[in-house]
């Protein structure tokens, strides 16, 4: 997703996203979810928010998945 900085209103922009992508190091069990708040301050954009992902990992000692 691309966001044009000039399109961000003065009061800011709130985005709720859900994206599915492939990762080499981990197995994603569901799409990654994000809640982002974008605000402009002079010539900068401040991004705050949270990301949530459901992962399947492998124990480095016993090689069991968790």
Please give a structural write-up.
- The chain is an all-beta fold.
- Helix content is 0%, strand content 45%.
- The protein has no helices and five strands.
- The strands form two sheets. It has a three-stranded antiparallel β-sheet, with no helix packed on it.
- The chain is elongated.
- The two termini are 31 Å apart.
- The mean pLDDT is 91.
* General form: elongated
Mean pLDDT: 91
Number of strands: 5
Based on the structure, what is the oligomeric state of the protein chains?
single chain
- In DSSP terms (H or I, runs of 4 or more residues), the helix count works out at 0
Outline of this structure?
This protein is mainly beta. 0% of the residues lie in helices and 45% in strands.
Which terms summarize this structure?
single chain, 66 residues, mainly beta, three-stranded antiparallel β-sheet, 5 strands
SSE layout and pairing:
Layout: E1 13-19, E2 27-28, E3 32-41, E4 44-52, E5 55-56
Antiparallel strand pairs: 1-3, 2-5, 3-4
């Amino acid at each position: 997703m691309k966001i044009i900085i000039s399109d961000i209103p003065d009061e800011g922009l709130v985005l709720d996203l859900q994206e599915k992508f492939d990762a080499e190091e981990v197995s994603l069990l569901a799409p990654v979810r994000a809640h982002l708040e974008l605000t402009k301050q002079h010539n900068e954009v401040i991004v705050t928010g949270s990301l949530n992902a459901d992962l399947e990992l492998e124990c480095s000692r016993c090689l069991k998945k968790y």
